[in-house]
Amino acid sequence: MQHQRPKIVDVARLAGVSTATVSRVLSNPDVVSAETRRSVEEAIRQTGYRLNHAARNLRHRRTGGVVALVPNLSNPFFSQILAGMAAVLAGAGYNLLIADTCAMGGETLLGYAEPSRADGLIVLDGTLPADGLKRRVPIVLACEWIPGIEAPRVKIDNRAAARVAVEHLIGLGHRRIGHVMGPPGNVLSEARLAGTEQALAAQGLPPPLVLPGDFSLDSGRLAGEAWLALPAEQRPTAVFLASDAMACGFIGEVQHCGLAVPRDVSVMGFDDIELVSHMTPALSTIRQPREAIGRRAAQCLLAMIGGEAPEGDIVLPTELVLRASTSPPVTTPAIKSREAGPARL
Amino acid sequence: MQHQRPKIVDVARLAGVSTATVSRVLSNPDVVSAETRRSVEEAIRQTGYRLNHAARNLRHRRTGGVVALVPNLSNPFFSQILAGMAAVLAGAGYNLLIADTCAMGGETLLGYAEPSRADGLIVLDGTLPADGLKRRVPIVLACEWIPGIEAPRVKIDNRAAARVAVEHLIGLGHRRIGHVMGPPGNVLSEARLAGTEQALAAQGLPPPLVLPGDFSLDSGRLAGEAWLALPAEQRPTAVFLASDAMACGFIGEVQHCGLAVPRDVSVMGFDDIELVSHMTPALSTIRQPREAIGRRAAQCLLAMIGGEAPEGDIVLPTELVLRASTSPPVTTPAIKSREAGPARL
DNA sequence: CACCCTCTTGCAATCGATTACAAGCCTCCG
DNA sequence: CGGAGGCTTGTAATCGATTGCAAGAGGGTG
């Protein structure tokens, strides 16, 4: 009859105590006398007893888990954020459930925002329907956010970061600057575009040449094609792309066609994913503190689960990382001869 | 008094039926008469009732979740595997819980392998202790595996794949070939090294120059430094690295020092992560079917959870992807003159 | 010796949904 | 008209652990 998984009453019987005492040994050992405790522990060992979490969760009315909704698990940008979250949550005894929002419908997703499924929710996808997420479990929004929802946001100042990036390009002497956007409608895309425009306008420069994109490698490659297709004298001498992945695709395409970076075009990315510091040329970019974003989001959520009032928005600092993909524009021969011409005579 | 979360008895009261009927409407609607069903559904809508999963799980003795143990979430190699798993599992109504094994101790990890936590376990980390994982929930091992454990494995033929990679290099005319290994003790590292050695031995060539590594970008960079530090005439003319990430680091370091790939050294990677097709030069590599690995592992686990006998090992095909980072060795001047010398006179 | 206090332990209700079993109601047939 | 059989529904036990309440043991004090 011992072929079944042992339950708490089996332990109790063997130790000659009540189930209440066994339970106390498990979750509140101090109130049990040392002697009893030892014999219960011995009985646990002998029976090979393991706690049933479903039962405990039912009683405690909590799940011990936190769900993260990620737009695309395949995107390496998110994995480090998740790693940061996982570290903090594990330290507090919480599981991290990860759900890929592109792999499932909205109905399924809402199922995760329930107290009986998770004690909290971290949303990394700004494209979810706002209405379904209201009045459920504590929620924190990280990176992207959903305009309609009242919840703390852990983010960076995308607009300011974009401005810094473009100011750097302007400072190098670039005047014709291109911008490759993220997916249309995305809050990050809009903010980074706005920052780009602001930086240019502040210097009295014309607005950027804007190319469409969606953060993916391949959309960066397509942007590269579009750039190459321009007449040489119309090409921006510097391009700021809203993600590193796109910058990689862009550079790959440009190099593939025999042009060089930064000689023929300066390129600036966004994110500072690990790989781009090892490319040739190493990519100049804006560093997002990905682990820190994950950690802060998790801490913020834990605080809310613990009953504290939700914090306001948390804005983490970014950093301009200058590497080898940006340089002053090379003056074109035509201009050079015009400028240098008189002196040469 | 309605400030509490409504339970099934609240719905039952409102609809004027018993809790059993409400439960049946929820999980087995066909046995309930159409009229009753409609009134119960109306009551559910009015109360805003939501099912309590903890209670259902307790009763069903299942959790509806599957845990994946991943060695390092930050590694983009795993994210696509997870995406594949998540897609299959979501389709079958299971959650995917992801745990980063490097963020937690072994004790914590074993806690995931319990029937009350998860209905199954997919292990992607070969370095876990074998003993703790026995006799718990259904387990599938993917990519890496744990020698002591009896469980279906979803994998590729690492040795054969490495052989194919090295045969390609040999076929191009390379004779001095280097290999940068994965982490010591790892089953993948061993198999890929063995395949490399086999391919060389089969052609009567000397064993490879073996450099240490750990799959990470930075260890690839260090391998690049080590390669550069060799006297030019001892440097392998081709290097096969056990991961794409290392290949990126290696190429970055070599290019950084002014040498060119593949002119000065052919480089071959392993994995075919998305980024490497966009680098310059585009990386020749072995493609692992990552999504398929995740999908097959999930399917296999679902079958086991469903009570089917565990399948045998599943070996998925790899593919040699030839791009621009490999080419015939450039004959060195010394050799060239020796060979061409007589003819020249 | 009666009384109070502290420490340990057990009893039994509870968390919320599921389901085996039985009962009630119809209809149909011999 | 009695009974078999099909539907639908309700009753109550069950899943396994937790915990408020109270009782019993032991020690100290007036």
UniProtKB/TrEMBL annotation, chains A, B:
Keywords: DNA-binding, Transcription, Transcription regulation. SUPFAM superfamilies: lambda repressor-like DNA-binding domains, Periplasmic binding protein-like I. GO terms for molecular function: DNA-binding transcription factor activity; transcription cis-regulatory region binding. The keyword Disulfide bond does not apply. Residues 6-60 form the HTH lacI-type domain. InterPro entries: HTH_LacI, LacI/GalR-like_sensor, Lambda_DNA-bd_dom_sf, Peripla_BP_I. The lineage of its organism: Bacteria, Pseudomonadati, Pseudomonadota, Alphaproteobacteria, Hyphomicrobiales. Coiled coil: none annotated. It comes from the Bacteria. This is Transcriptional regulator, LacI family.
